[in-house]
Amino acid sequence: AQTVTQSQPEMSVQEAETVTLSCTYDTSESDYYLFWYKQPPSRQMILVIRQEAYKQQNATENRFSVNFQKAAKSFSLKISDSQLGDAAMYFCAYFLPGTYKYIFGTGTRLKVLA
Amino acid sequence: NAGVMQNPRHLVRRRGQEARLRCSPMKGHSHVYWYRQLPEEGLKFMVYLQKENIIDESGMPKERFSAEFPKEGPSILRIQQVVRGDSAAYFCASSPPAGGSYEQYFGPGTRLTVT
Questions:
Q1: Strands A108-113 and A10-14, bridge-based pairing
Q2: Which residues of A62-98 are buried (b: 16+ CB within 10 A; e: fewer)?
Q3: Is B108–A102 a contact, with Cβ atoms under 8 angstroms apart?
Q4: Which of A29, A39, A106, B101 could bridge across to A89 with cysteines, CB 3.0–4.6 Å?
């Protein structure tokens, strides 16, 4: 069964600095999707970035980028120039085509220090 | 284009009562998914529905929980005889009929508190 592991329950970063959130997953499949979601105190799930496993190029969205290491089954999120509004829970998620469900990790709480 | 709508946003029930959570998918979306988020945990899949059909309910507890998505109206997640352990945030997501279930859009969630 597929699993997603986020080993950092909490991280802190100084405003304007860079932080990397870790995510590893376990799968025997070769074609799948990976996601990072942000959940602020409002609890709304906000898609930050998506990566298709067949793409070797790492996805980037403005200040957010991923380091996708398929062989190592690692999918970390880098946030550059951190802002106070980035403070939230961040969830890594896995999706296997042909199934219907996202599999989420347990989340990393990111604190941004002014 | 309005996003996924869920109501109520907050629901308080006493033990033994019934809870009904509603979800209106995005316009044009015919696939609905329900997830549950227990405190300090990630979201866990409960059920996947298309109009008038339950496609996958492998994540639903066997008792007290049911879901429907009628031809007209919102999808409903019903929890009968609620217990304290049902306190959680319940999220609905929807996806378009074509393009694959990987593209799920989440609603704001309903926070259920059982007293």
A1: parallel
A2: eebbbebeeeebebbbbbeebeeebbbbbbbbbbbee
A3: no
A4: A39
Is residue B9 pLDDT above 70, yes or no? yes
Q: Is B44's Cβ below 8 Å from some Cβ in A?
A: yes
Name beta bridge partners: A76. A67
Instruction: Map residue A114 onto helix, strand or coil.
Output: coil
* Token pair 């946030």 in the structure block, residue: A79
**pLDDT at residue B102 tops 80:** no
Contact criterion met (CB below 8 Å) for A66 and A82? no
The confidence score (pLDDT) of residue B1 equals: 55
The pLDDT of B72-94, averaged and rounded, is 96
**CA pair distance B36, B71, nearest whole angstrom:** 24
Q: CA nearest A4 in B: which residue?
A: B42
Cβ-contact B86, B112 below 8 angstroms: yes
- B82 to chain A, minimum CA–CA distance in Å? 22
d(CA B59, CA B28): 25
Q: Does B100 touch chain A (CB under 8 A)?
A: yes
Q: How far is B5 from chain A (nearest CA, A)?
A: 11
